[in-house]
Each structure stands twice: as C-alpha cells, then as structure tokens.
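About this split. The held-out portion is used to measure sequence recovery: a designer receives only the structure tokens and must propose an amino acid at every position. Recovery is the fraction of positions where the proposal matches the reference. Here is one held-out target exactly as it appears in the evaluation file.
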C-alpha cells in the first residue's frame, strides 16, 4: 500500500548539507499499522513529509496504492492534495476560530471537485461518531479537552476517507494517563476503518503496543525492521536494544555453536552462558550478547540450580513499585535484574544468576 524505495533527503543549511534521510526503503501492506521509531532528529518527520508531498526527496521513489506519487529519476511529483492520505500532526493544527463541525469539514471544503453540502454533513457526522465526538458539532474547537482535540484531529484525518493515514507523534501533547488510554483506542479505530497507517514516534512503548511492524531509525537509516516482539527479543545492535527498553550487554567468545537442539556456549565476561540461536558465528568469534533485565533470574546460594549458575553479590536494590531492580556485581562486571516486588533479596546477598538460553540475544554487529 505504501512503498518507499531508496529515499534520500538532503537539506542545505548554514552548517552545510544535512543528509537527513539516507536510503530508507519501506513497504507497508494494506491495513498494516507500521511505525517509525527513533530518537529526535533521526529523520522520521522528514520521511513522513515526503510521503505527504510536503518535502521534496533528493532521490528515491514513493508509491501510495497503485499511484507513483514521487520518483526523482522519472521526475514525477504529485501534489499533496492529490495524494490519497489523511494526516495527524503533533500539534493538532486545529483551527481555533472554527467549530468542531467546521474543523472536520475543512479538508472536504478544500477538495476538488466540490463536495456537496449534504455529503459533507454525512461524512463529518460519520467521522465524529467514530471518534466519539457526536454532539460536540457546534462547540468552538478550543473548548475541547486535550484528549478531545486529539480525537478531533483524528476525525479530520479520516473524513477524507483516504486509504492511508499518516501520524506524526499525535499523542505527545497528552498527559501520560490519557496517552496510555488513547494508544489502544487509536489503533482499534484505524483497524476498524481498515486504514493503512504510518505512525511516527520516539516513544518505544507506543511503538511496541500499537504497531504491527516497527522500523527503528538511527541517523536517517533503518537500523532494524521487525515485529515488536522480534525487535524486543532479538535486537540486532546495541542501539536498537537500548532504545527499546533496558538491556544488559556482555562481551564473550563463542565456545561452541548450537546444533540439532543442543545450545551453543559462550564464555562471557559474566561467566559461561548457553544460547539457542542468533546470527551465524564460528567457534572463537568475539560477540556481544544482550539480555533483558526481566530475563535475569536470581537463585539463593545452595539451591538446586547451583551448578548452572554464575555467582554474584547484590549491590543495589531500587523499588519501582511494580518491580525491584537489582544490580548484581559479578567480579569486574555487573548485571541488572528486574524482580517481582515480593522477592526476598537484600543488598549484600550472595546469589546465583541464571539466564536461560532462549533469552540470550547475540548482536549482529
Ligand atoms: N528544513 C530543514 N532544513 C535543514 N535541516 C532540516 C530541515 N528539516 C529537518 N532538518 C534536519 O533533518 C534531520 C531530521 O529531522 P526530522 O526528520 O525532523 O527528525 P525527527 O522527526 O526524527 O525528529 C535533523 O537533523 C533536522 O535538524
Ligand atoms: Mg519529528
């Protein structure tokens, strides 16, 4: 539904040329909720603006549905208003002097050929109902709450009944609680309408909870593209692993590789660990492994697991409410573990550290 091929964007600025997008290739399937995730300045908004026709790529091609909307090589560029898209921005860009009804009607009044008044009324009322703002038609837009304004922006994006909707950090102006509620509501609505969504955010929780697929961006490039589960469990690099949640890293040497159901072995700076899968490696290779804190288990010294454990000493415990975060010193290195808050553990305890083979991710680079 959305195909971006080798997209490059260069800006001329007083500091020289900024190469903001560097060869981005994305293919979003019809009905898919696809998220671009990355830190500020990595090129997310620029990519989205190219799709909308608000920015001119330096190179590459973009198709929406069957229509090539941009192709630098073939000198094709279709203007914004002829692209089959709706958009929701970070600043909702709500017209303060217009009512709720007129805010939503606005994109329809801009359309050519003219949309008839009865049709405008039908579509606006339909859109307002979908975002649960029926009954607010005559209210001036500034008199809505933050969450309602966000839904109004959404109604305006869907009123064109476009097949593709673009979101640029649409929830970042909401407070934390409302943001959490709106995430799933928004995803459900997009799914119910059968729209294809390209959603930009710097918030990892948003990306993980909302997206069918995530592309993590770094410095204008896609660092990894996968499902949220895959990205979380099998990050390819330190950047991806630490951008999406907390992670422990350790260097190690491959002692044996996995084969026929037998785990491989790595001698890590924490101690020996087994692993199940990962990029191809040979015995003797130096690798970096990544393990999530919730996958580090502690056993009291002398328990049955003793033989398979790495021994360490608890050096710090932080109470987080829903969890305890413990730092365990392992000689020259240390590891962070996340435990249930009822865990009986104290600073100074000698503990066994257990990491299961399926929870060891080997980084590609
Ligand atoms: N109009 C512009 N002129 C010069 N540099 C720009 C312009 N727009 C964006 N940039 C630069 O391009 C890079 C990517 O910006 P942007 O796409 O807005 O990132 P993000 O949305 O991921 O935060 C940044 O370094 C930004 O400063
Ligand atoms: Mg941005």
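Reference sequence for scoring:
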């Amino acid at each position: 539904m959305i195909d971006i091929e080798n997209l490059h964007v260069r800006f001329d600025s007083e500091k020289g040329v900024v190469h903001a997008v560097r060869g981005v290739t994305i293919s979003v399937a019809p009905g898919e909720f696809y998220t671009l995730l990355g830190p500020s300045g990595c090129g997310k908004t620029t990519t989205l603006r190219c799709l909308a026709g608000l920015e001119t790529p330096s190179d590459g091609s973009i198709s929406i549905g069957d229509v090539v909307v941009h192709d630098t090589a073939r000198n094709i560029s279709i203007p914004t208003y002829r692209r089959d898209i709706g958009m929701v921005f970070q600043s909702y860009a709500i017209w303060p002097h217009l009512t709720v009804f007129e805010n939503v009607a606005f994109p329809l009044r801009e359309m050519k050929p003219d949309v008839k008044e009865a049709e405008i009324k039908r579509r606006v009322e339909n859109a307002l109902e979908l975002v649960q703002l029926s009954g607010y038609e005559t209210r001036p837009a500034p008199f809505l709450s933050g969450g309602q304004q966000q839904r109004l922006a959404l109604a305006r994006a869907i009123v064109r009944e476009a097949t593709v909707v673009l979101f640029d950090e649409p929830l970042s102006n909401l407070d934390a609680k409302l943001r959490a509620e709106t995430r799933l509501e928004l995803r459900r609505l997009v799914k119910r309408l059968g729209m294809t969504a390209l959603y930009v955010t710097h918030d990892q929780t948003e990306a993980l909870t909302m997206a069918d697929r995530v592309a993590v961006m770094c410095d204008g490039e896609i660092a990894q593209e996968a499902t949220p589960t895959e990205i979380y469990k099998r990050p390819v690099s330190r950047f991806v692993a630490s951008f999406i949640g907390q992670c422990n890293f350790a260097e190690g040497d491959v002692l044996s590789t996995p084969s026929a159901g037998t785990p491989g072995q790595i001698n890590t700076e924490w101690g020996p660990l087994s692993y199940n899968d990962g990029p191809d490696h040979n015995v003797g290779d130096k690798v970096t492994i990544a393990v999530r804190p919730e996958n580090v288990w502690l056993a009291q010294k002398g328990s049955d697991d003793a033989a398979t454990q790495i021994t360490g000493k608890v050096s710090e415990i932080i109470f987080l409410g829903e969890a305890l975060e413990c730092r365990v010193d392992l000689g020259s290195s240390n590891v962070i573990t996340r435990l249930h808050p009822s865990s009986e553990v104290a600073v100074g305890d000698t503990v066994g550290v257990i990491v299961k083979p399926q929870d060891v991710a080997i980084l590609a680079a």
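Annotator remark: The longest strand covers residues 16-28.
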